[in-house]
Amino acid sequence: MKTILLAIIIVALAFVLLGVKVLFVRGGKFPSGHVHDNPALRQKGIRCASNQENN
């Protein structure tokens, strides 16, 4: 029982820490994980794999 409770607490803490910006900042949102939204990758010419397959 202690293990399950500890696991639930750890998962809840991880959720809160990962979502601090989303939960506590007005207008906050998770950063985009898409390759085309990352300027450094675009500068290097790295594109999304699905786009590369189509071209």
Explain the overall architecture.
This protein has 55 residues and is mostly helical. 60% of the residues lie in helices and 0% in strands. The protein has helices at 2-18, 20-24, 39-43, 49-54. It is elongated. The protein starts with a helix and ends with a helix. The mean pLDDT is 82.
Low-confidence stretches: none
- DSSP strand tally: 0
Shape: elongated
Structural class: mainly alpha
Beta fraction:
under 5%
N- to C-terminal distance: 54 Å
Q: Indicate the radius of gyration in whole angstroms.
A: 18 Å
Short description:
This protein is an all-alpha fold and 55 residues long.
Task: Give the secondary structure arrangement, pairings included.
Blueprint: H1 2-18, H2 20-24, H3 39-43, H4 49-54
Give a quick set of tags describing it.
55 residues, mainly alpha, 4 helices, elongated
